[in-house]
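Complex record, two chains
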Amino acid sequence: MTPPVQVSFYGGLGEIGRNMAAVEVDGRIALIDVGLAFPDAEHHGIDLILPDWAQLRDRRKDLHCVVVTHGHEDHMGALPFFLREFPGVPIYATRLTLGLLRAKFEEYPDIEADLREVEAGERVETGPFDIEFVGVTHSIPDGLAVAFHTPHGTILHSGDFKLDQTPIDAKPTDLPHLAQLGDAGVALLLADSTNADQPGITRTERVIGRTLREVFAAATGRIVCTTFASHVHRVQQVLDAALEAERMVCFVGRSMIRNMPIARDLGYLRYDDSLIVDLAEVERLPRDRTLIVCTGSQGEPYAALSLMAAGEHRQVSLRPGDTVVMASSVIPGNENAIYRSINGLFRQGAKVVHKGIADVHVSGHAAADELRIFHNMVRASSFVPVHGEYRHLVAHAQIAIETGTPTEQVFVCEDGDTILLENGVAKRGESFKPGLVFVDGLGVGDVGNAVLRDRGKLSAEGICIAVVTVDQHSRSQGVPTIVQHGVLHEPSQADLIDQATKVLTEDLHSAGDGDHAVVRRTCVQTLGRFWRETTGRRPVILPVVIEV
Amino acid sequence: MTPPVQVSFYGGLGEIGRNMAAVEVDGRIALIDVGLAFPDAEHHGIDLILPDWAQLRDRRKDLHCVVVTHGHEDHMGALPFFLREFPGVPIYATRLTLGLLRAKFEEYPDIEADLREVEAGERVETGPFDIEFVGVTHSIPDGLAVAFHTPHGTILHSGDFKLDQTPIDAKPTDLPHLAQLGDAGVALLLADSTNADQPGITRTERVIGRTLREVFAAATGRIVCTTFASHVHRVQQVLDAALEAERMVCFVGRSMIRNMPIARDLGYLRYDDSLIVDLAEVERLPRDRTLIVCTGSQGEPYAALSLMAAGEHRQVSLRPGDTVVMASSVIPGNENAIYRSINGLFRQGAKVVHKGIADVHVSGHAAADELRIFHNMVRASSFVPVHGEYRHLVAHAQIAIETGTPTEQVFVCEDGDTILLENGVAKRGESFKPGLVFVDGLGVGDVGNAVLRDRGKLSAEGICIAVVTVDQHSRSQGVPTIVQHGVLHEPSQADLIDQATKVLTEDLHSAGDGDHAVVRRTCVQTLGRFWRETTGRRPVILPVVIEV
């Protein structure tokens, strides 16, 4: 008579991709991933977006462990914040994932972490949980799918994966292991939907190596190559091609410099020390004998490549004849920043090779035909598409139905939805309403949508402040002081401020006695009308009433 | 001994694509296009971006005419603002372009326009200008390339074009005419670079018709189809496919409702009135007998499709089983808005067919292999790539060189550059420094980068105002009033304001006597530090000193 197993989706089902799910067995909770998302322009000034784990606060004692599927920020990036609230919860992950997590925790010296290494193929029993780890290929090594064997059936979470049959580490997603799980019976499958609306299969990572060798062989000046600092296999291919092209390699950019030695020390990256030079040396070597591997593939304003594109990198300059290879994807929302980088690189005279014109990137996620294979291996009796925007989840649901999952056992969920699994049958549970938890400066969760709306309005229209001094009867005294910021270019428009002051003085005078609220309302109405009529703008009007 | 002909680039060479160029012959100036650009998120609250024609103000009497190549906003959208400054300058354009321009001018009743209709193949002599118009195919009918026969050689501007050999109006870009011009000799070519880095050719518009017929035949519920309201041929194909699918058509969205009758009245669009229903009727007809053609392909917040996606359109709702066809491109910068629309449409239960998964869009611009054909027709002796970001201009320059233009006669220019043509030889002239002219509300050009920087800072960090009353010796009186907007969520953080007030009171007290500047500096320093230390944020600090 064990209660149903509950799966709760805290994030990753929708446009804000910070991944986190919970599996609750017998009153104990295991989390799968605790990731963060990076803000868009509409998240004015916000630094990070975390999952909203508010409802776990009442379940503190029931939190049993966290399983991290792989070392990307959207899967493990929120852990420092999580551990501040829930110190000591054990974290299970593979060796590389833990290596990157340790490096991250160095920036948060207050964090206590209980890190437990597991490896693909292993099975761990802890509390009511019986967890089996399956190796998967992704755009970072050492990724996992995770199976929870529960009293009500096996739940399999795919992690982020693709079916590259010739990955760089020769460890393709463990289809035989998935087939075994399928033979034994998977009651509920949760699987990566990122590329569910892309037909065909994602090509092997090895195609990039071929392109790199060709491009490097043809290059006559310096080569700069950018990719994600966690894409160890991509960097491996760059290093191998650099060796073949007899070029020395220099890592540039904080995360590149931090991650590559970790990956090498842990055995995920192979290169000879003689291949590597530091930045000071690079400038002394012939341009056609050097290659720089750097961050900045997304046009991030202060990343190495962006600075080079703007001609503002202190140590590295580009010249006509140099080649820049952007061995990276375009993350939606970053298009304009990336194009600005590319335009800047061309202005420096560089030749730019990017995925729009050459095979220098493949995705880390399975496309539709790979998903079909995956579903036919696992043969789950119920399915929830995860890791994607709604359009991807719908496309993936369709694939599950095509490959035999009964339509009524396929659930398109959103953040905050739950699924109950009982005797191998899934059904929807009660939903909760998770919000977006913003990190802004030192604050976690103290800036919400109201503040963002304020900032949005300030951003579009500016602000006008009216300081009105009143006597104890709220009668306006003297002349109000009007100050604006972001409404207009003050030096050239000082007369508008004078006019506004005149109009407001008159209106305050005719408003007569009242209270502070009347004074405030007069300011808002008069100045709102004034700016609308004179400039067509609608700044925030902020009255400050001072009683003297 | 006529002076060299000067070509000046006012816009369209770079990331802000409002197109405008000037050809000066014998002291008289003809403009090619006067377009506008739409702002990005980084242009906080700006409505439109115009070319900076400041230096034409001194040349008012020399302004001879404007030639508009086609009816897109980035080529003619700034004309109302231009004509306010330069009333009565004659505008030459084709019938459809003028039809759309007249409709636009209805929104600007103060505008006086001297509109002069020309047609492809025509040649017009006016003042020192001898202008020949060549028909080109684009994503709007009735587009033109423009040749200026000058004493120093012929200058050909391609307009926006592609080489679709089976366009919907059976009027492909007039290659024989271009060949004739080439035979006679083109001294300087300016040509569309938008797709210069895309290999191959842009497929014919007709492929869309095939897809539409298939999708419409398979649809069981309502069909909603969105595209650009100026893409007359795309709409023609939607109407034809709707007729074949026996569906009544309803136009939704202001510009769609405005433009389609214009296009039909002028003979560019054919449909029978019996095919069209209005919005009130649509809801009374069976869902599988209706089709809505609407605006909103770019995810614009208040456009018809966006409202439907959010379930907020007053008259049109979507249901499971409906089909939405997005027969449109993704303009860079709009990706997230468009994906949000698509996700919303899926949430309403609709099937969404977009260019990512079906042939429902082709570009209006020539790809690299078409450009090669174009260059080989024209055989110009010098070349400036226009209409593109820097990366496109560089790619197009390469194509010109490949097809035989001498390298030293290929000029990659940017906004503000000029080219001098003398005796058939081109060279760089002096550059000017055009800015970006922003339209914000009623203001044209009064908001500049300084105001945008202010808004950007407000947007990211919010603002904190300190009102300090001082006596005549600038000694702070009483307690300052501190108000914030966009820094934090005030109700939950009122104690922070109290703390800030306390700290500032003390610091003002210890600052002692001085002048207003000292008081202001104390506010900025104390509050800056306070917010940084307590919240990690750096709001704009705005001190207001009131002498009582």
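Note: The mean pLDDT of chain A is 95.
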